[in-house]
Design brief:
The complex is a heterodimer.
Chain A lengths: L3 H13 L2 H4 L1 H22 L11 H13 L7 H32 L1 H14 L4 H12 L3 H25 L3 H9 L4 H30 L1 H4 L8 H10 L3 H29 L9
Helix pairs in contact in A: 4-13, 5-6, 5-8, 5-10, 5-12, 7-8, 8-10, 9-10, 10-13, 12-13
Chain B lengths: L2 H10 L5 E12 L2 E13 L4 E5 L6 H9 L6 E6 L2 E2 L7 E4 L11 H11 L7 H11 L15 H13 L5 E5 L7 H18 L2 E6 L2 H7 L2 E6 L4 E7 L14 H27 L1
Parallel strand pairs in B: 3-8, 3-9, 6-7, 7-8
Antiparallel strand pairs in B: 1-2, 1-4, 4-5, 9-10
The chains are: A mainly alpha, B alpha/beta.
């Protein structure tokens, strides 16, 4: 006899698996990945591509093993990844702590929006490298300037998404709360945050992606560890296998973090798991 | 029903008088001051069931939002039990058209929201919510989210949420407008049952004549552009009302009266729109 509780718990686990993995479309995505991989193998094996610039999967895999065990420039791959992910997460979490409340405030109040908008709108389109030179002058070449650059990259997307989220809240939700006699604090935690939650999460995911894009720039100067720095350093010596391996590893950590965020979102916002009847 | 609830009901019996004193509500549109309502006065007595009936654009929703304190009148004053209404008050519960339940709260949490804000101490908000869920026959769905429920069930929860705050006045803005006609009739009968139990004042906005005649003690027929009370119609159908009420000759007669008055207004509104 099949254990009923087991079935139930299986179903419960299934609820936490991101829906995209459960769908047939996921198989199609895998197909694309496989085609890309096969193309890579064919192009390198037949000698169509110069091995100096595009090494084969095997070579990249070997460099993965090598850097994992022996390290690159004194640090193992794990240290490089750990250092970079640490930097990204520290900056990103700080950006969330500051950006989300700022966005809620700016979304709810026209005056706050007018006051704070110039702060983000001005630097937002600036290229990260340009900004970084100034940050290095101000904060030195240590961790501070790196974190600041990552932080500044994460912030605008978060704030803009949060403003949008708050502004798009159905006014009837606010009326209900006011009609029941809710205080501002109650409305903030019971209406603003949950109503804006899903859009804020989407903003967080985009923002984290954007933080990744400036990682290499942030680790160019005076770093001795970090996956961005490793890629940059390896490129100088034309170690294309290390560069490609680094990019793949970096991409995979990004995907892992994104899945993790969605997972957290599904726990914090359980109602998004249930679609209509 | 618990003892506590009955106690509350007795207290509310004498409360819930709404005075509408010479109210005008206007808004700006293309630099022109447009009156949604003009010089409206009436008194709604405690425990009375009043329907605001009129074609769309007659300002019946504006009047309701004014009573609720969501919209400030440009002239005149609303009173609740002889106190000026200066903004939304927990003494008045509002039921909105649809989709006003919080999708992020379970059915039980939605109903418990009001009681948790206005903590009266005697009973936990959860307990109150469960009592109301039993009353509307949705105990099974306590831990479901609103979007798992049908429209009719959602609106029952919406009514329970408003009632769970023990208001003196229940304001309803076309609450059954989005429901199919069968569900609508059942909802109307259920609403009358709840109203009888709670003995509270109800102000109910609708453009459905049958609905207004079936539910109301009094129908305020509204005219358009600007909105005024065209006729204050007493509905002298016996209570409790049920399916048979709608077959009675008096019901048909009253419906006829409303029908011709509304038609006049609709035509007028239609012509005016064409002239613009």
């Amino acid at each position: 006899m099949i254990n009923k509780d087991q079935i139930k718990s299986n179903r419960n686990i299934k609820r936490f698996i991101p829906p995209f993995m459960r769908k047939r479309t996921f198989a199609y995505s895998m197909l694309t990945v496989n085609i890309l991989f096969i193309t890579w193998v064919v192009v390198t094996e037949t000698g169509l591509a110069d091995e100096l610039f595009l090494p084969g999967p095997l070579k990249v895999w070997q460099s993965f093993i090598e850097v994992s065990t022996e390290g690159y420039q004194g640090n193992t791959l794990f240290i490089h990844v750990f250092t970079s992910v640490n930097r990204i997460l520290a900056a990103f979490i700080l950006a969330c702590i500051i950006g989300i409340p700022m966005g809620v405030l700016m979304g709810a109040s026209k005056i706050a929006r007018a006051l704070l908008n110039p702060l983000i709108e001005f630097y937002r389109p600036l290229p990260p490298l340009g900004l970084y030179t100034l940050l290095v002058m101000w904060l030195g070449i240590g961790e501070e300037s790196k974190l600041a650059l990552l932080f500044l990259a994460a912030l605008p997307g978060l704030i803009i998404a949060t403003i949008q989220a708050v502004q798009n809240i159905d006014p009837v939700y606010l009326r209900v709360a006011k009609g029941l006699g809710a205080s501002k604090k109650t409305i903030l935690f019971n209406v603003y945050l949950p109503a804006a939650g899903p859009t804020i999460l989407a903003g967080m995911r985009i923002s984290l992606g954007f933080t990744y894009t400036v990682l290499v720039a942030a680790e160019i100067v005076a770093a001795s560890a970090g996956i961005g720095w490793m890629i940059w350093d390896a490129a100088k010596f034309l170690l294309s296998d290390v560069v490609i391996m680094g990019l793949i590893v970096l991409g995979l950590t990004g995907i892992a973090l994104d899945i993790f965020m969605r997972f957290i979102g599904r726990i914090l916002m359980p109602w998004t798991r249930y679609l209509g009847p | 029903m618990t003892i506590n609830m009955q106690k509350t009901l007795k207290q509310t019996k004498t409360k819930g008088k709404v005075v509408i004193d010479n109210i005008s509500i206007s808004y700006f549109n293309r630099n022109k001051n447009v009156y949604a309502l003009r010089d409206i006065s009436t008194t709604i007595n405690p425990g009375e069931f009043v329907c605001l009936l009129g074609p769309s654009g007659c300002g019946k929703s504006s009047l309701l939002n004014g009573i609720a304190g969501f919209v400030d009148p440009s002239k005149g004053q609303f009173y609740l039990d002889d106190k000026k209404i200066m903004g939304p008050r927990p003494e008045m519960g509002m039921v909105f058209q649809q989709y006003s339940l919080y999708p992020w709260k379970t059915v039980k949490e939605n109903i418990a929201f009001g009681p948790s804000i206005n903590n009266r101490g005697d009973e936990s908000p959860e307990k109150i919510a469960m009592n109301f869920l039993e009353m509307i026959g949705l105990s099974k769905y306590a831990n479901h989210y609103p979007n798992e429920l049908s429209g009719g069930m959602q609106q029952r929860v919406g009514i329970a949420r408003a009632l769970a705050n023990y208001p003196d006045v229940l304001l309803m803005d076309e609450p059954f407008g989005a429901l199919d006609s069968q569900t609508r009739i059942i909802m109307q009968e259920n609403l009358l049952k709840l109203w009888r139990e709670f003995k509270i004042t109800v102000v109910f906005v609708t453009h459905d004549i049958d609905e207004a005649v079936f539910l109301a003690d009094r129908i305020l027929l509204m005219s358009t552009l600007p909105g005024k009370i065209k006729k204050d119609l007493k509905v002298d159908l016996p209570r409790p009302r049920d399916k048979e009420t709608t077959d009675s000759s008096r019901f048909i007669e009253l419906r006829q009266i409303c029908h011709s008055l509304i038609r006049e207004e609709s035509l007028k509104a239609f012509d005016k729109q064409n002239q613009l």
